[in-house]
Amino acid sequence: MSTTSSTAFPQLLAPLDLGFTTLKNRVLMGSMHTGLEDGRKHFERMAEYFAERARGEVGLIVTGGFAPNIEGWAKPFAGTLATSGAARRHATITRAVHAEGGKIALQILHTGRYGYSPLCVAPSRIQSPITPFTPRELSARGVERQIRAFVRCAKLAREAGYDGVEVMGSEGYFINQFLVKHTNQRTDQWGGSYENRMRLPLEILERTREAVGRDFIIIYRLSMLDLIPDGSSWDEVAQLARGVVKAGATIINTGIGWHEARIPTIATSVPRAGFAWVTKKLRDQLRAEGITTPLITSNRINTPEVAESVLAEGNADMVSMARPFLADPHFVKKARENRADEINTCIACNQACLDHTFAQKISTCLVNPRAAYETELKIVPIATASAPRRKIAVVGAGPAGLAAATTLAERGHAVTLFDAAAEIGGQFNLAKKIPGKEEFSETLRYFRRRIEVTGVELQLNRRVTAEDLKPFDEVLLATGVTPRDPQIKGQAEGEARGQVLSYIELLQGRGIVGQKVAIVGAGGIGFDVAEYLLEAGHSLTLDAAAWRRHWGVGDPAEVRGGLLRPAPEAPRHQITLMQRKAGKLGAGLGKTTGWIHRAALKMKNVEMLGGVNYEAITPEGLWVSYGEKRADTQLIEADTIVLCAGQLPLRELQAPLEAAGVKVHLVGGALEAGELDAKRAILQGTRLAASL
Ligand code: FAD
Ligand code: NAP
Ligand code: SF4
Predict the structure, then answer these.
(1) Is residue 532 over pLDDT 80?
(2) Which of 86, 304, 361, 474 has the most CB atoms less than 10 A away?
């Protein structure tokens, strides 16, 4: 390890002395459920996944949640640590992490009423709004059984070689459910007064500390801002923190928002480090009382620069980043080696991590498809693989072409990357203009640097022809897509008048947009275009105070749970968003982010119409009908009509190249435009490049 003196990140890379052990820096890899935890078959794979992050020098890793018993299951047969046999399997993980010089804690997660399981239990028989099962109310003996399960789990974690445990007390899970009256209506010693409601975490911590000894890390994840009605008051939060310290916690981690809260807490549109102030509030209060227990802050911290300033401003003693370690396992090492510009930044899209979890798929990462696939998707140098070095052309520097070109060059092939545009990125150059998608620029910064590091020859402003590509051994066509033309009657005249714009023209600033706007097509791009128009010139993501007002996030010292009435700014356009399909608009958006986009549009009075037929465009606007009643037309008044009707593959070079005998591969939109997204584009580009 180098010293931290010559680094741009002195706070981040400073060791943290916990008395009985020292963490090498201030970075915690926060707990993430990847799906590898469930069942018994993934321990080797999990070991490699965590070992890779330990090699990347993160200070302390926290595993995904493991239930202490079956009543705490997140879903049937979810990962559980309740027997010595299970502890032996876990030792595979701890050995692998320790061999790389890392430290790892096991998260104990009891989901309570959030369990997708008929066996779920809770303080009171109150179903959650986000799960289908009504929990069984625990008897006093039942509560005692749960406490013993937590303690047993912690002891087994120690037996398995973990350096500590994180007791999950936030996000609305079991322990959190005891803390607030919203979910705890008991009248025995576990309910009623706050002293009674907070007894559960304190009992768990005290007995755990007694069972594991002094030299074992216990992190308590404390909900500092519930963001639900009737959430904890600030006095209660502070009282709990004091109690948690007294009961034996080594570190307090920050929890923001219950899962059922209707305020985004980790999506890409949340301002960076947007909740660090909450941890600071508690830290300042505890420090004033002489309590020096380290506090960890979290949520939307994704670059070393942001993490450093969070620490430098005294918000916390450590930062927790979770998804950034899917995006780049070597985040800390690169920061330490002054190679921060080489970090593959998490763009907080949730598309390949959380959305996968909800679809019962193994989590990975949109920008790093090797995440959790380390044992399977290997990038082997061609010298090692005994493959011949080839001269390969990649046409198109969108996400698919960028992933393919840099992976091929990393393996040792001679790669030339062409793009007709003046900059790399393809459609990501449009995506990054959407308010709340500013993070997409980071992916382009990463690839720009990656092109330099791997030695790809980049030729911009080059719209290549089949003739240009004949000298290459192989050609990858990553030429993307072209917008679908919905061919509405009167559309051509509307285009000539400047009334009809494609989403590309709109986002490139070509065209004048009137007050009333009709959007044809309500896929991801239709929604994005609506948000672009509503927030034009003022991204809430870049204005944290405005963002908090918009969603109704308040000071928990003034309002319980920090929940205020949302106060959105007046919309800048009157928008109608349409699709031909009947049913809810935005149904195909991401599971964990679609609700945010729908809520944002509703808050700005966007009218959403499903089941429409587009009959004609006239200077007054767009004429539509519904279902079979085609003659019964209705005018949607519109000064501007934006076409977002999906896309078609662009692969005109394929046929002439194949006719000339050149070996051609298609990736990304060029291969298939339907349901294309950057996740698929990057995955395809990477996998193909790994195989050539
Ligand atoms: P493209 O990105 O289309 O790149 C193709 C490239 O090929 C272009 O740069 C083009 O100039 C070049 N090219 C074409 N023909 C030639 C030629 N003959 N010679 C040289 N160069 C050529 N996806 C997500 O996953 N999540 C999102 O949140 C998201 N948001 C989006 C928001 C907007 C507003 C838009 C427009 C798209 C969004 N997408 C999102 C979609 C995502 O950007 C695309 O799925 C992805 O860019 C497709 O990658 P690709 O490499 O296949 O093609
Ligand atoms: P899309 O999601 O396929 O949506 C296309 C829209 O056009 C749909 O509403 C579709 O609905 C409509 N449409 C299709 N054919 C039409 C026709 N002939 N006439 C009129 N309307 C038609 O595609 P997209 O919005 O262009 O997005 C492209 C890709 O980028 C998507 O696959 C998406 O995954 C990705 N993206 C993702 C995000 C994200 O947040 N994850 C954001 C932006 C983009 P009807 O057929 O019902 O009319
Ligand atoms: Fe981050 Fe998106 Fe990767 Fe998840 S999928 S880790 S949110 S970049």
Answers:
(1) yes
(2) 304
CA angle 305, 241, 123 (to 5 degrees): 115
Q: Is 384 exposed, middle or buried (0-12, 13-18, 19+ CB in 10 A)?
A: exposed
Give the pLDDT band (50/70/90) at residue 5: low
Note the pLDDT of residue 387. Answer: 80
Which residues contact ligand 3 via a Cβ below 6 A? 323, 326-327, 346-353, 365-367
The per-residue pLDDT for range 286-345, each reduced to its tens digit, is 999 999 999 999 999 999 999 999 999 999 999 999 999 999 999 999 999 999 999 999
Residue from 53, 323, 373 to probe ligand 3 pocket by mutation (most atoms less than 8 Å from CB): 323
Mutate to test the pocket of ligand 3, among 351, 362, 445, 447 (most ligand atoms within 8 A of CB): 351
- The answer to whether the CB of 74 falls within 8 A of the CB of 115 is yes
Q: What element of type H or E holds 388?
A: none
pTM exceeds cut of 0.85: yes
pLDDT at 2: 43
Q: What angle do CA 669, 671, 674 make, to 5 degrees?
A: 60
The four Cα atoms 141, 147, 152, 155 give a dihedral, to 10 degrees, of: -150
Q: Exposure string (b/e) for 209-248, b if CB count within 10 Å is 16 or more? A: beebeeebbbbbbbbbbbbbeebbbbebbbebbebbbebb
Q: How far is the CA of 640 from the centre of ligand 1 (A)?
A: 25
Q: How far is the CA of 474 from the centre of ligand 3 (A)?
A: 31
Cα-to-centroid distance, 318 and ligand 1 (Å): 37
Domains of the chain: 16-358 (3.20.20.70), 391-482+648-691 (3.40.50.720), 485-536+572-645 (3.50.50.60)
User: For 407-456, what is each residue's pLDDT tens digit?
Assistant: 999 999 999 999 999 999 999 999 999 999 999 999 999 999 999 999 99
So which residues are the catalytic ones?
173
